[in-house]
Design a protein that fits this description.
- By secondary structure, the protein is α+β, with helices and mostly antiparallel strands.
- It has a domain of about 100 residues.
- Helices cover about 15% and strands about 40% of the residues.
- The chain is built from five helices and 30 strands.
- A six-stranded antiparallel beta sheet has the order 1-2-3-6-7-8. A four-stranded antiparallel beta sheet has the order 9-10-11-12, covered by helices on one side.
- The longest helix is centred in the N-terminal third of the chain and has 18 residues.
- It is flat.
- The chain starts with a helix and ends in a 13-residue tail after the last strand.
Length: about 375
């Protein structure tokens, strides 16, 4: 283990010198991580990260496709090359750790990362000068994708003493903070709203929703109040809609401040996370809402699209236009019209499957549940 730590530290030190990155080291138990960072001169919150470290439970961090074998859930190595599989098995036999390297670059609207894994094989370390060149090329490529207008705007943000810049893609604006208050800039760094507000939501139509002293308003870019919005809280707008609360009840408003449907729900979840995964998925058109402890679907007009009979909706687990839902303690699927596609007789299982007895099921492209054919277990295919 000490040998592994030494190799990691040596490689991290070499990288920090080659790339001009600052380095700090964290060690806890069997885990060692070397953090390397470069602060980009665009603004105080833009940086390049390279993290190198070990994981004693590395199978939890590897992004491998899960396969279910028999009664247990295992990570399979079949997605990796034969050379990588050989190194994994060799490392496992020797009780040696897996080492990971993650490269990341982050600015106001630019975020990319890549993770690579390496293993000890005999006395040979997998990472070498070739990897250093790869890392350099990756970082330079990512830097080159930063748009000139973003770089210029960030430098203006920095020069004016603003901080925490946040780029809003839909409105092409930058929200900033100063002295604990929020303001808004355009992409040329010109001030739209002075930092005077407790919260701020830019809109696609050019107007802005702001909160000042617990009062919400819809204003134009000249700061004129267009409409007072009598809500306790207004969440960020996504595709022109936002979830609002008043007196503990939830509803949905549009960019004009109009209430869509009714303000009567105990909870509404906006589907921003779903549209990020699959912008073509029709479920991105829906909200999930809860009333009297049961969940159902709302469309973008606030209309109820299903009965409120579900114990849980697994909104993050989309696949093929279907979503898993739980009713009366049993699981099934609904389609993109919010129609139930099967009987609710299944138990929820790991990795996109439903279980009935000792059999696993998953919907096909037509929405029909098919039995999953289990693969025989090969001990050499298990990473631990």
């Amino acid at each position: 283990m000490d040998y592994t730590y030494k190799k990691i530290k040596n490689f991290a030190t070499l990288l920090s010198k080659e790339l001009g990155l600052q380095m700090r080291i964290h060690k806890e138990g069997k885990t060692l991580v070397c953090f390397l960072r470069e602060w980009l001169d665009l603004d105080p919150y833009a940086w390049v990260d390279i993290n190198i470290g070990t994981y004693d439970k590395w199978m939890q961090d590897l992004h491998m496709r899960r396969e279910i074998h028999g009664g247990g859930d295992w990570y399979a190595l079949s997605d990796f090359s034969e050379d990588t599989q050989a190194m994994v098995r060799d490392a496992r036999r020797k009780g040696e750790p897996v080492v990971w390297l993650e490269m990341a670059i982050r600015t106001m609207r630019h975020k990319r990362h890549e993770t690579r894994y390496a293993f000890l094989k005999g006395n040979r370390w997998k990472w070498d000068d070739e990897d250093i060149n790869y890392i350099k090329e990756w970082l330079n490529k990512q830097r080159a994708t930063i748009a000139p207008e973003e770089a210029a705007a960030l430098k203006i943000v920095n020069s004016r003493g603003f901080y925490y810049p946040h780029y809003d893609k839909q409105s092409e604006t930058i929200s900033v903070q100063k002295d604990g208050k929020y303001g808004l800039l355009d992409m040329q760094g010109e001030i739209i709203c002075e930092p005077l507000y407790d919260n701020i939501h830019p809109l696609r139509n050019g107007n802005v929703v702001v909160c000042k002293e617990k009062s919400w308003s819809l204003i134009n870019r000249q700061g004129e109040i267009l409409k007072n919005l009598e809500y306790d809280k207004i969440e960020s707008f996504v595709d022109g809609l936002a979830v609002v609360t008043l007196g503990g009840k939830y509803g949905i408003i549009d960019e004009s401040g109009n209430l869509l449907g009714k303000l009567k729900y105990d909870k509404i979840m906006q589907l921003e996370s779903i549209s990020k995964y699959n912008e073509e998925d029709k479920f991105a058109e829906y909200f999930e809402a809860c009333t009297d402890g049961k969940w159902g679907f709302l469309n973008k007009q606030g209309k109820e699209m299903s009965p409120f009979v579900y114990d849980e909706i697994q909104m993050r687990d989309f696949e093929g236009g279907f979503v898993r839902v739980c009713k009366n303690g049993k699981w099934g699927y609904v389609n993109d019209q919010c129609e139930e596609m099967c009987e609710f007789i299944y138990e929820f299982d790991w990795c996109d499957f439903l279980r009935l007895g000792d059999k696993l099921y998953k919907p096909n492209a037509d929405g029909v549940l098919e039995e999953y054919e289990k693969k025989p277990v090969d001990d050499n295919d298990l990473p631990f």
